[in-house]
Amino acid sequence: MDAHSRGRADEIDPADQWVLNPQTGNYELRLDDSAGQSSQQAASGARRATVPAPASRDTSADPAVEAPVPGQRRRRVPEPDEGRDRLSPASRRRPKQGASRKKKVLLWTGGTMAFVLVAGATGAYLLYNKLDGNIDVVDPVGAESKGFRKGEAFNVLIIGTDKRTGEGNSGYGDTDSPGHADTTILFHVSKDRTNATALSIPRDLMTTIPECQSRQPDGNILTIPGQQKARFNVSLGQDGRDPGCTMRTVKELTGLTVDHFMMVDFNAVKELTSAVGGVKVCVEKAVDDPKSHLKLPAGESVIEGEKALAFVRTRSSFGNKSDLDRIKVQQQFLGSMIRQMKSNETLTSPTKLYDLAQAATDALTVDKGIGSLGKLQDLAKELSSIDTKNIAFATLPVIDNPDEPKPITVVPHPTQAPQLFAAMQADTSLTEVKKKQQDAKNAQAQAQAKLLQGTRAQAADVRVDVFNGSGITGAAQSTINWLQNEEGVTRSTNKSNAPEKAAKTTLTYAPNQADQARKLADLMGLAATALRPGTQDAGVREPMTLVLGADFKGAGVPINGPVKAPDVEKVQADKQVCAK
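Given the sequence above, the corresponding structure tokens read:
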């Protein structure tokens, strides 16, 4: 700008007319008396023209040296782009203004971030409470929950009820029924958390339902009498029975303590399958079932919702149209669903995980021991390390009910069922049975090496009288049936009860019966400590004496030797099997 237009330009330095206004942060042109203003201008007061700071100025002169302006020597105001150490006190305020603005930005940013964090934490808390509040809890009277103690196996009973609850389910199940134990699976988790066995219990199984107590909706405790030879599915819902009664029935049947239960209804299948985006199933031939309304092409399909429920309820399109064949289809379906839940497609999707958590908590009724989201998370952690190839689905071995002329119900297989129960009690994995059997057999062989060395008689040459000292009704006869029908020991006789109960099973034999004793010991899994050799030889037709003790677990179940799991049909959770 031309200083001559401002008067007496020969007496002032133009740079002295630009002054930083600390209140605005801008440079302003000041004209006052010292700058040679006219008296009129002085009387009217100083005039100011506020303009932006000059874009460029000559900064070659040292600010400490006064400019040789004719008639006046003034110190030049330094430019804002010069070093901070050269700025005047007034000019140093501008960077502080900038710093103040930065502080405001940081405060706003920090405040926003804090709000997001607080909102997120609040949202997580509300979400947790929402999911936690979805869970229905039943407190079974006298439940024996052990929790999930490290180094101990545990059992969870999964109960599918046919109660007509939930939207769109009025056409299923029995009208006005409180529901039955329609689908029941005992899920046994090994103590080392490497494997699990899912044992399906047929709803039409005839069994003993023990007396139980049930907590009613009004808080009162109802005692329900036990029943002999009753269908398993009436252990729930009927006569006021709650899931605790089903837990006791399973313990009575299998000898395994049930630690927890999880009960689901029709909606569970529909909602869980939709939450994971569908479940892959396979059928050997096309299905068009008028009863369940299931329609599927041959081969693989992905199903969810109503179609998934129809799949697990269909009977007339698979196998011999029985509940036992429907169980096989359900096992295949559950294996596929487990694979889908553990897949990366599900685990890496926040939406699917949330939908799955929402559906699961909506669908579940559980016991008090796992009656919160946190405890269900603990359960999930216990199961997370199990590979699907080590989860085996099996069905309780059964035979047709001999009490019915035209059997429509079943009873436990007299030898295979006790063997399977014993395998589960011994924590024997169905996916590693051969290895565990061999390990146990090797250990037994070493202990019995000296006593049991020598020849073995043929099964048909073994003579033995069997006495029942176990305290279990029918133990001697069931053992005779097993020995004669399955092992070929036809020269065996039931001698009824022993004179007194025996703590251990023993086999007494003469020296010339050692080959027979070794054979029977092999068949029954008797340890060397169970053998009682005599001192005098026996007659040609004289039998050995077998006394069953309190360690007797069932016909065909090894007493002290390796646990032998029965050769039952099973499917592993990592295998895709087509329903027939």
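Residues 93-134 form the longest helix (42 residues). Try to locate this feature in the token string yourself.
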